């Protein structure tokens, strides 16, 4: 099985023909479609919601939908995103008054649950909840916008989370989101990531989706397993 999964963040896609964009990147080889839902309250940007997710399902897209909620609060959107066809739902711990309850809600509606950490958010949030998680998302930029620069000291945070996951012996996916490009992806994956989320590197590239994804996969194949 593939050690690394590639997720395309559609924040950088062309929204006037989003369904086609998603089909094109799937055909080109991405494994997951990453949905950035922003509310202009928790983050200073406004994007899409469950309505768009639902219409993409109705359009016929059957691939894995990974919803990244950057909203406060989260519980109502958890329910509507699950009903609209999400597979994974990830939220930021500071956006929920009751983290355990929000995670249970995600599971109650049949989805896998993830917790997202901003560059400066402490990993202490994991202490009493890691057993219930399917995914941990580490932000390598401040949330809100595509096309930002990867924050280098996040590499040590990724290494730290990988150690926590391995110690816990749980099958938790470690996803990294923000500023990933062809030059730094090798080092990020080598630090312990499973899922690499890429937005502008895929969608705002002079290369075709097929060519850039082929290059990304070639980079990932060169990783020396530890
Ligand atoms: C940022 C989003 C990311 C972003 C990634 O708040 O969560 O998913 O779209 O885009 P790039 O790869 O351009 O940093
Ligand atoms: Zn995201």
Oligomer: single chain
Order of helices and strands: EHEHEHEHEEHEHEHH
Instruction: State the helix count.
Output: 8
- Order of adjacent strands in the largest pleated sheet: 1-2-3-4-5-6-7-8
Percent of residues in β-strands: 15-25%
Mean pLDDT: 96
Radius of gyration in whole Å, from Cα? Answer: 16 Å
The N- and C-terminal alpha carbons lie at a distance of 17 Å
Structural class label: alpha/beta
State the major sheet: 8 strands, parallel, barrel
Q: Poorly predicted ranges (pLDDT <50, ≥5 residues)?
A: none
Helix coverage percent of residues?
25-40%
Bound ligand species: D-xylitol-5-phosphate, zinc ion
The 3D shape can be described as globular
State the total count of DSSP E strands.
8
Note down, in words, how this protein is organized.
The protein is α/β, with parallel strands linked by helices and 226 residues long. It has eight helices and eight strands, in the order βαβαβαβαββαβαβαα. It has helices at 18-28, 50-59, 75-84, 99-108, 154-168, 185-190, 200-203, 209-221, and strands spanning 5-9, 32-38, 64-70, 88-91, 112-117, 135-139, 173-177, 195-198. Strands 1-2-3-4-5-6-7-8 form an eight-stranded parallel beta barrel, surrounded by four helices. Bound molecules: D-xylitol-5-phosphate and zinc ion. Residues 9, 11-12, 34, 36, 68, 141, 143-144, 146-148, 177-180, 197-201 line the site of D-xylitol-5-phosphate.
Protein topology:
Blueprint: E1 5-9, H1 18-28, E2 32-38, H2 50-59, E3 64-70, H3 75-84, E4 88-91, H4 99-108, E5 112-117, E6 135-139, H5 154-168, E7 173-177, H6 185-190, E8 195-198, H7 200-203, H8 209-221
Parallel strand pairs: 1-2, 1-8, 2-3, 3-4, 4-5, 5-6, 6-7, 7-8
Helix pairs in contact: 1-8, 2-3
The structure holds D-xylitol-5-phosphate and zinc ion.
């Amino acid at each position: 099985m593939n050690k690394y999964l590639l997720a395309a963040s559609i924040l950088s896609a062309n929204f006037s023909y989003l369904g086609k964009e998603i089909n094109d990147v799937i055909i080109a080889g991405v494994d997951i479609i990453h949905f950035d839902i922003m509310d202009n309250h928790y983050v200073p940007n406004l994007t899409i919601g469950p309505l768009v997710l639902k219409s993409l399902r109705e359009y016929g897209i059957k691939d894995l939908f990974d919803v990244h909620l950057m909203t406060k609060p989260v519980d109502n959107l958890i329910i509507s995103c699950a009903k609209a066809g999400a597979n994974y739902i990830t939220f930021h711990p500071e956006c929920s008054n009751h983290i355990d309850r929000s995670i249970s809600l995600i599971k109650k509606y049949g989805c896998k649950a993830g917790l997202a950490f901003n560059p400066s958010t402490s990993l202490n949030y994991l202490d009493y909840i890691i057993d219930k998680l399917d995914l941990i998302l580490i932000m390598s930029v401040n949330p809100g916008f595509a096309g930002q620069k990867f924050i280098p000291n996040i590499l040590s945070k990724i290494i730290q989370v990988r150690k926590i996951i391995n110690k816990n012996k749980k099958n938790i996916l470690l996803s990294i989101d923000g500023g990933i490009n062809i030059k730094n992806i090798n080092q990020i994956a080598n630090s312990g990531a499973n899922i690499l989320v890429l937005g502008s590197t895929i969608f705002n590239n002079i290369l075709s989706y097929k060519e850039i994804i082929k290059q990304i996969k070639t980079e990932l194949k060169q990783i020396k397993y530890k």
